[in-house]
Specification:
The chain is mostly beta strands. It is built from one helix and seven strands. A seven-stranded antiparallel sheet has the order 4-3-7-1-2-6-5, with no helix packed on it. It starts with 16 loop residues before the first strand and ends in a 13-residue tail after the last helix.
Length: 168
């Protein structure tokens, strides 16, 4: 079956909450060691998070709200502008230059306090709209061996280093 979709579709998702605290500015690295809160909207009953605290990690899908449509780049480019890394296409990058401008994170769940879900290792900034919050099931993660190009390991070597180590 070879279907062709000529025009990109759009889909509207509700914002279920926002990131409170944590990172105040976007950075490429040093995302670790910071606690933030995913504050769910008050329209959701407290029982909507019942049982979530039993998990060690959650999956979060969020809107890169500091990005603009003109930031999108639909061409091959070297990651982070580093000429030592090969040019790769838009869908190889995980940044705001993608057409969806959506991020996906798997932060550690610290605790649930009412509609406040406290996490660490969330690489979204204060004020970020949250679209999806779900528990992480390792059984639903990648299957089979995992491999990435060498440049990914080089580029992300300090990604989860504690933010306190960042020289601002």
């Amino acid at each position: 079956m070879s279907e062709t979709f000529e025009t990109p579709e759009t889909y509207t998702l509700p914002v279920i909450g926002h990131v409170v605290g944590g990172h105040m500015m976007k950075h490429d690295d040093y995302q670790g060691g910071v606690e933030s809160i995913i504050r769910l909207h008050q329209t959701y009953p407290l029982e909507a998070v019942q049982g979530l605290a039993e998990f060690s990690h959650v999956q979060v899908v969020w809107r890169m709200h500091l990005a603009a449509p003109e930031d999108v780049e639909l061409h091959a480019r070297s990651p982070r502008g580093n000429p030592e890394w090969p040019p790769t296409g838009t869908f190889v990058h995980r940044n705001h230059r993608r057409p969806d401008q959506v991020g996906i994170s798997h932060p550690n769940l610290v605790r649930v306090d009412g509609r406040d879900v406290h996490v660490t290792h969330l690489d979204a900034v204060h004020g970020t709209p949250v679209l999806v919050l779900a528990p992480w099931f390792p059984q639903m993660g990648p299957q089979g061996p995992i491999h990435v190009p060498k440049w990914v390991d080089e580029m992300l070597e300090r990604y989860w280093a504690p933010s306190i180590e960042r020289a601002n």
